[in-house]
Amino acid sequence: MLLSMSSHNVIQYLQEIGLCCSEDGALNKYELLKSSPQNLNLLVTLAGNQKLLVKQKRQIENNGNSHDFFNEFLFQQLLQQFPVLGNISAFAPLILNFDEENSILVRNYLSEYSELNEFYRHKDIFPSSIATAIGTTLAELHRATFQHREYRNFMATAPEGQFRYSFYNPAQGVDSISPEIFGTVPTEALKFYLLYQRYESLESAIADLAYEWQPCCLTHNDLDLNNILIHSRWDQLDNCLIKLIDWEACGWGDPAFDLGTLIASYLGIWLSSLVVDPTIELEESLHLAMTPLEVLQPSLLALIQAYLKEFPMILEYQSDFIIRVVKFTGLALINQIQDTIKCRKYFGNTDICMLQIAKNFLTIPEQSILSIFGVSEAKIHQFPQWQKEQELVPLYYEKTRLRGC
Question: Fewer CB atoms inside 10 A, N or C side of the chain?
Answer without folding.
Answer: C
